[in-house]
Design goal:
Number of helices: 8
Largest sheet: 6 strands, mixed
Strand content: 35-45%
Shape: globular
Oligomer: single chain
Number of strands: 30
Helix content: 10-25%
Distance between the termini: 54 Å
């Protein structure tokens, strides 16, 4: 297959904030590709750049290998279906679908043939004379898709088109969209924040975070082999823990060393480990149990029970069709292929920052100042500051040393790992907290200055 759409090093900023950060991707002709991510991650912005409604600050948009940055939307072989279908209420179904063809002044016979053909594809044959305001939400959506596809675009962009539908209709329309895409062979580029939609319909899933596309893959691979903790946490439910890659095929977490199927992470390197709740079997504790824990809570979910199990100082989530009572001692069983190793989102385990001695026994960094008795360094000396994630506290903004932007939050079994963006120098900080916070918002943080390690940096001009 050939690449029908390519983005190369796309950058877009609003009011100084970078919305898309060096985005590159290739989409093959005939694929159903889904952009998945939380609100504000940049997925709709990326769609609008492909459609020509936005122009990137830098980078290239290519269509069939040709650069189209300056090509207006109406001249691109692309059509868009939005969450609000924007149908014409005064026109019937036929005239809504035929609208674009009439603008092109095509012969009446060709218009009629193409409209009826498209209505049959979207399962609306016989609805030609029906007023659109007398249709159900799912039928209106199919009219909008027919109107877009009747113009024979090579690419159809869909921006959360199922968001206004109820749950049952949304599930039905997922199947309808897959069938329409397969019948027409048109490349579908779909935007959603719903994991199930992405996994159900797509040939390829692209997870976005803070204007960056995470490593993308097929739905099966992105679920079974997530590349980092953000993707693992966003796609489905997961147990994500701090771990140490002892050596190839051996990883340590929860107080024990386990055999796994991953290699190439180095020796004694910090990594994240993920184990899906459905990949853990429970039994009475035995010598064969990988771990032993205690059931703390149980919730019936319809097709399975969701149990919280305290094990090795960590909270584990387990999905099972067998219920175990609260307080029961259970053995946890999982194999090497159930353990997935990922690189840490934040490479280091501590924050390494630069500072300067601005007064006697006074250090400044990131716009903050703190005293250190008997520092013994001259004014103007450069220093390296080492700050543990445990020594940064989340506080209200009026008690904060600084306000930062919360990029991600991952639950690690007994604490939340937060990665925040520091407005002062544009770098990220790592901190640990027992508090839940809203991702993609500003939060206040406070440093335990008495625990900051200070070292003079020599050899600086």
């Amino acid at each position: 297959m050939s690449h029908i759409v390519e983005l190369k090093n796309i950058v877009l900023s609003y009011d100084g904030d970078r919305i898309l950060d060096d985005v590159s991707l290739s989409i093959e002709s005939g694929q159903f590709v889904t952009f998945l991510g939380p609100s504000g991650c940049g997925k709709t912005t990326t769609l609008r750049i492909i459609g020509g409604f936005l122009t990137p600050d830098s980078g290239d948009v290519l269509f069939d290998g040709k650069r189209i940055n300056d090509l207006p939307p109406h001249k691109r072989e692309v059509n868009t279906v939005f969450q609000r279908y924007a149908l014409f209420p005064h026109l019937n179904v036929f005239d809504n679908v035929a609208f674009g063809l009439k603008i092109q002044k095509l012969p009446k016979d060709e218009i009629r043939r193409r409209v009826l053909e498209m209505l049959e594809i979207v399962d609306l044959k016989g609805f030609e004379k029906r007023r659109v305001n007398r249709l159900s939400g799912g039928q209106q959506q199919r009219v909008a898709i027919a109107r877009a596809l009747v113009n024979r675009p090579k690419v159809l962009l869909l921006d959360e088109p199922l968001g206004a539908l109820d749950l049952k209709l949304r599930k039905d329309m997922q199947i309808e969209l897959m069938n329409i895409q397969r019948k027409t062979g048109v490349t579908f580029i779909y935007v959603t924040h719903d994991q199930e939609e992405a996994l159900t319909m797509s040939d390829m899933v692209l997870v976005m975070k803070d204007g960056v596309i995470q490593p993308y893959a097929t739905p099966e691979d992105i679920y079974n082999e997530p590349r980092n903790a953000f993707v693992a946490d966003f796609i489905g439910e997961s147990n994500i823990f701090d771990a140490t890659m002892v050596e190839d095929y051996r990883v340590a977490f929860c107080g024990k060393t386990f055999v796994c199927e991953d290699a190439g992470f180095g020796e004694n390197r910090p990594v994240d480990v993920v184990i899906r709740p459905e990949d853990i079997d429970l039994s009475e504790p035995t010598d064969d149990s990988a771990l032993v824990g205690e059931v703390r809570s149980i919730i019936f979910k319809g097709v399975h029970y969701e149990m919280s199990i305290q094990c090795g100082g960590l909270e584990w989530m387990v999905h099972s069709t067998d219920a175990w009572p609260v307080g029961a001692r259970v053995g946890l069983h999982f194999g090497p292929n159930d353990i997935h190793i990922m690189k840490r989102l934040f490479e280091g385990s501590e924050n390494i920052l630069s500072g300067e001695v601005v007064k006697e026994d006074m250090i400044e960094f990131l716009g903050c100042q703190f005293e250190r008795e008997n520092l013994g360094l001259p004014v103007g000396a450069r220093v390296r500051l080492t700050i543990s994630p445990k020594d940064i506290e989340v506080v209200s903004s009026d008690h904060a040393d600084m306000v930062v932007y919360l990029e991600s939050l991952i639950y690690k079994g007994d604490y939340n790992e937060l990665i925040v963006y520091n407005y002062e120098d544009g770098k990220s900080l790592l901190l640990h907290s027992y508090l839940d916070q809203q991702v993609a918002t500003d939060i206040g943080i406070k440093f335990a200055f008495d625990k900051v390690k200070v070292e003079e940096v020599t050899g600086v001009d």
